[in-house]
Amino acid sequence: MLKLYAMFLTLIFLVELVAAIVGFVFRHEIKNSFKNNYEETIKQYNSTGDYRSDAVDKIQNTLHCCGVTDYRDWKDTNYYLEKGFPKSCCKLENCSPQRDADKVNNELIGIFLAYCLSRAITNNQYEIV
Questions:
Q1: Which family does it belong to (predicted)?
Q2: 3-state secondary structure labels for all residues of the chain
Q3: Beta carbons within 10 angstroms of residue 60's beta carbon
Q4: 99 closest CA partner among 79, 119, 115
Q5: pLDDT higher for 106 or 83?
Q6: Per-residue pLDDT averaged across 55-64, rounded?
Q7: What does R_g of the chain's alpha carbons equal in angstroms?
């Protein structure tokens, strides 16, 4: 029974090792895929409660950022042409930024990726025990 446990533990370790190596090797492809999907979601953004738009709002509110790289990413969207920046880009509570770039957050996507990484590490830390 102890040998079976050791075998399964070794198998799990090897699978985790392979997953880490694959993640490291393909990190640029993963980053580019995430960036392209996020840019596409911003271009299709609307305020009607679409799940993609809700995800964009949640990301921007949580990370206090606006757009993929900065607020200028919104200027190429139909939403910006009609209504300006979304409210999730606001620096302050209860603002309506419309087209005023001084009222929007302008952080980088690196903040989001760092947040995701730290959250994944924190969540998985308790699963190891």
A1: Belongs to the tetraspanin (TM4SF) family.
A2: CHHHHHHHHHHHHHHHHHHHHHHHHCHHHHHHHHHHHHHHHHHCCCCCCCHHHHHHHHHHHHHCCCCCCCHHHHHHCHHHHHHCECHHHECCCCCCCECCHHHECCCCHHHHHHHHHHHHHHHHHHHHC
A3: 24
A4: 79
A5: 83
A6: 86
A7: 20
Q: 93 to each of 47, 60, 72, 127, how far by Cα in Å?
A: 18, 13, 21, 37
- Do 68 and 103 form a contact (C-beta atoms < 8 A)? no
Provide the residue count of the chain: 129
The angle that helices 27-43 and 109-128 make with each other, rounded to 10 degrees, is 120
**What's the pTM?**
0.61
Contact 56, 41 (CB under 8 A): yes
> What is the pLDDT, as a whole number, of residue 5?
92
